[in-house]
Each structure stands twice: as C-alpha cells, then as structure tokens.
Amino acid sequence: MYLSGERLESFSGVFGWFTGPITSFVGLIIPLLLLKYGFNSNWDVLFIDESRIKIIVIPIIIDVIGYLLMTIPYLFWDYDDVKVKKVIEVLKRREEVTKGEDNPEGGDTPPESPKPDEIPEEAEVMS
After folding, report:
1. What is the DSSP letter of 103?
2. pTM of the model
3. CA 127/CA 124 separation, integer angstroms
4. Whole-number Å distance between alpha carbons of 65 and 95
5. How much of the chain is in helix, strand and coil states, percent to nearest 5?
6. Which residue blocks in the chain are alpha helix, DSSP H?
7. Which residues, 6+ apart, have CB-to-CB distance to 97 below 8 Å?
8. What is the pLDDT of residue 127?
9. 10 Å Cβ neighbour count for 89?
10. What would you measure as the largest C-alpha separation in the chain, in angstroms?
C-alpha cells in the first residue's frame, strides 16, 4: 500500500491461499501423531504415565515450533525511529496533497483516493 499508493483490499485473504493448505495439513498430522502414541477414544490411557506424557508433550512441541516460526518475520524487522519518521512525513504530505487536490473548497464531499501517478514519491524513504 505504501509503495503503490493503492489500497490492498484483500491482502490478508491472499495469505490465506498459502496458509490454508498448510494449516489443514498440520491439523491432519497432529491427531495421527496422538493416535500413534496411544491416544484414542478410550480415555483410560491418560492414566498410563508413559502414554500421558507423550500425549501431552506432542501438542506442546508442535505449539513451540509454531511460535518459533511466527517470530521469524520479527527478526527481519528493520524500521528504526528515523525510518518511521520519514514514512510518517511522506504519509502526511500525501494527505495534504490529496485533500488539497480533491477538495479545495473544504465542502462536505469526502475526498476520493488519489491515482498512483498523482501521488508524490519520496526517494530517500525507500533507500
């Protein structure tokens, strides 16, 4: 959105295309692992120490792996205060330009979204 100047309406839905099959696959593997280590419809297996430990440890290990995978994007986050201030400056300038071009009289009509070629780009923010 920041680079193109256009709204990304279904941005999160696009990620669902990739994450949906992965979560479905993992959702099928976990019950198979639990079944392999003794968990079935007979709840009495939870009274057996060896089975209970395996049945409890497997979901915990899978959760820990999932949380570690979710933290990977944060390792690459490189916005410091200077970059954030530059982004805010550009967004404020875009807002001023948009309000100035679309609604010069200050009437009640809401401003329309600007076209990508009409939005000024700041080169130093991208470097």
Report:
1. -
2. 0.49
3. 5
4. 42
5. 70, 0, 30
6. 11-36, 49-75, 81-102, 123-126
7. 114, 118, 119, 120
8. 46
9. 13
10. 77
